[in-house]
Amino acid sequence: MITRIEIDGFKSFKDFAVDLEPLTAVVGANSVGKSNLFEALQLLARLIDMDILPALQGGRGRVADQFRRTVDGSLNHMRFAVELLLSANTEGCDVLAKDNLAADGGLAQTRVRYELGIERRSLGAGVEELVIASEKALPIHEAADRWLTRHPELRGFARYGVEAPFLSVGHLALRVSEVAEYDGHGYLIDDGLKAMGGLPRNASATSMNRLRGAFGPHLWALSRELRGWRFLQVGAMELRGRSEPTAGVVLAADGANLPTVIAAAPVAATAQIQADLAELMPGLRSLRVTAGEEFGLEVEFSDGLRLPARILSDGTLRMVAFLTALRLAPPGSVVGIEEPENGLYPGRLGALVEKLIEAASATRELPVQVLLNSHSPTVVATLHDRPRSILFADVVRHGEPLRSTRMRPVREPGPVDRSATIGLDEIDRILDTARPEEAA
Length: 440
Description:
alpha+beta; 8-stranded antiparallel β-sheet
């Protein structure tokens, strides 16, 4: 679960920082940077498995387009930080160093901050290289954990048993507290913090990537967290198609492998998805996967009519995809949904958001975190009783020629900085112009 994100130098972000909720809806007009927030998180996730260049190439635009623009061109650096509440579960962790575990075999520390800096450096003649400038994984200490003081319902999942950094990388030194063996370099590391030889100044990949699994349970859990983030921008054409048995059991960003994912889902999860659909779409009886050389999706209605995915409405298919991603997400993982309102009737959109609220409010286990990106007044109206879940996105200049993305939380009672917050009534007025279009 992501509790805070900080971004500087990536696309429209300058000195940006915002706390996130278990359910966060980023609302605002088009072209204010809502999608850029999701892109920043997706870039961090890709950097766990890719070198910098292909990771940046996986985003929108050219590599240079992803560095914040200036009047004279673009910056040569970008910085990120995320603060996380990790699942303490270490099942499946087979790394070499297993110090810093709690008595129950789980993580000793579940509150972690991960920082990363990327730079473009000149090689002369206009040629540049991309390098990791800095990288850290640090424990968040209980006394400094302001986010948890606002979320007492999740305090039982927070552990504070580690004092030293897990990973700290700069230009000239690499310090690792949990590494047993640094693959390819022959370093053997003892327990505790120990300095290693110089990091190459042209490091083209993160240490999380370079270490290739030879680290302790906390960095393993951090890697698991980032790899597990799912951001959906499903397409109707992709959802209508059939999918191969080898298409993967984790829902793709565009939803193209939805039939295969449902075919592989546990029976209990499939039953929950069907129950959700029946509640949100009266008259729908069941969801079926047809087998063959490829899997196909069918929906059966209460009158016995069966319709294949190729002739279902966009809204129905998107609803199936969103609920599938939600119900199959492991505890504490992140599911991001781009503009859930597309193709959905406002009444059903509100009902879907209620389901997302329910999933993000679980307390028996670490809840699934849901991040929404929307310009729908219906989303705001559904969250009126949960104002902490709303972030309003717009752009500001800060006295500069170029605009920056700003995201403001809803104003709470009491003395607050009014310039850094926004009232629900203000959000309603700004988005109200969309109501006639949405209801059409």
